[in-house]
Amino acid sequence: MNWAEFFAMGGYGQYVWGSYGLAALILILNLYLPLRRRKTVQRLLREFLRLKEQTR
Amino acid sequence: MHKYASPKFFYSLAGQLIPWTAAVTVVLLLAGLYLGLFVAPADYQQGESYRIMFVHVPAAWMSMFIYVLMAGAGAVALVWNIKLAEIFASSCAPIGASFTFLALATGSLWGKPMWGTWWAWDARLTSELILFFLYIGYMALQASIDDPRRAARAAAILALVGVVNIPVIHFSVEWWNTLHQPASVSKIGTPSIHPSMIAPLLLMAFAFTFYFVAVVLLRMRNEILERERHTTWVTDMLESKP
């Protein structure tokens, strides 16, 4: 198979790869954002717990 | 039933399910991409451009499927006051909104070479755009109310009212004369799509479904942690795992 031909997609390369690229971006973002949020929530809750113990 | 709906139990169950759903997603996605990009032949009318279908159609299906789940969970939360249903509904919204955006954007990228325009105010496109605004409105309404339970109730009512848009999207291509083509997969009777094209389409649709399950569980776990932060099981867990 010819790779240059494959990427050209019969002249529709920009539309086809644009669509697949956008799909990849959406899938990655929806995975990355909750994972980052998880770290933030855990850090904040641990800090909150530490402060509560110091004031006790 | 009560045990499964308890946030504590669900938190650990979701944690166990996520790696499996993620693994299934990867397998389905690779198989779908391989069949869709390398095996399926070019379309006799649209050439290679039709391969956009393999992300466009599953994204559009997900946009409607997630909305129905979100509104259904909202109804369950309203009637039986189940906290987990609220958490599920609010976790659906951003994911559903992004699939709706993907369906609209890939539709635009497909419309330009095939129809000669990025956008048309046709019934299918317009009702899908309304779906996007419903998701945005749902999230905005929820964010504008401080108390999470009151926010969930208000948002659930908005979601339920918006459900009327779902059959409009589905039947828009039959009810109105649209630029958008009619359905080829769900058509009863003569199959209008070749098996070599339907296989990658269904694989991608299942891949998106498993992906949705994995990421909605991730979001639900975050929300459970935040809402249950004052309970002993959360504080114990945070202290035991440094």
Describe this structure in words.
- The complex is a heterodimer of chains A (56) and B (242).
- With 56 residues, chain A is mostly helical.
- Chain A has one domain (14-55).
- Chain A has 2 helices and no strands.
- The longest helix of chain A has 43 residues, at 13-55.
- The radius of gyration of chain A is 23 Å and the shape is rod-shaped.
- The model of chain A has no long low-confidence stretch (mean pLDDT 90).
- Chain B has 242 residues and is mainly alpha-helical.
- Chain B has one domain.
- In chain B, 78% of the residues lie in helices and 0% in strands.
- The model of chain B has no long low-confidence stretch (mean pLDDT 90).
- Chain A binds chain B through residues 1, 6, 9-12, 15-16, 18-20, 22-23, 26-27, 29-31, 33-35, 37-38, 41-42, 45-46, 48-49, and chain B through 37-38, 42, 47-49, 51-52, 55-56, 59, 94-95, 98-99, 101-102, 105-106, 109-110, 112-113, 211, 214-215, 218-219, 221-222, 225-226, 229, 234-235, 238-239.
* Mean pLDDT value of chain B: 90
Terminal Cα span of chain B:
32 Å
The average pLDDT value of chain A, as a whole number, equals 90
Rg result of chain B: 20 Å
> What is the alpha-carbon Rg of chain A in Å?
23 Å
Find the structural class of chain B using helix and strand composition: mainly alpha
> What proportion strand of chain B?
under 5%
Topology diagram in text:
The complex is a heterodimer of chains A (56) and B (242).
Chain A: H1 3-8, H2 13-55
Chain B: H1 2-5, H2 7-39, H3 53-80, H4 83-115, H5 123-144, H6 148-162, H7 165-175, H8 195-227, H9 232-240
Helix pairs in contact in B: 2-8, 3-4, 3-6, 3-8, 4-5, 4-6, 4-8, 5-6, 5-7
Key traits:
heterodimer, A: 56 residues, 88% helix, B: 242 residues, mainly alpha, 9 helices, 0% strand, globular
What's a concise summary of this model?
The complex is a heterodimer of chains A (56) and B (242). Chain A contains 2 helices and no strands.
